[in-house]
């Protein structure tokens, strides 16, 4: 839901614009999250297919990112 809000707020300009909006409005989201009950979340990962990485390389990059950001 937050991603949709970011895309709407940035008028679907780009992923970078939406990410920047999310980072600027992070404190507001944290307040809303702390008030809400714990609910299951879905993680969506986006990667650039034009880089020509194989499936294994993409999987390794995703895994590394998850561990670096303590999401696993």
Automatic annotation (TrEMBL):
**Family annotation (Pfam families):** UBA_7 (PF22562)
Q: Ranges for the UBA domain?
A: 3-31
How is this protein named in the record? UBA domain-containing protein
């Amino acid at each position: 839901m937050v991603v949709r809000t970011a895309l709407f707020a940035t008028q679907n300009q780009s992923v970078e614009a939406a990410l920047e909006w999310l980072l600027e409005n992070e404190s507001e989201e944290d307040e809303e999250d702390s008030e809400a009950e714990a609910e299951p979340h879905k993680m969506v990962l986006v990667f650039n297919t034009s880089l020509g990485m194989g499936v294994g390389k993409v999987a390794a990059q995703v895994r590394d990112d998850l561990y670096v950001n303590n999401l696993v």
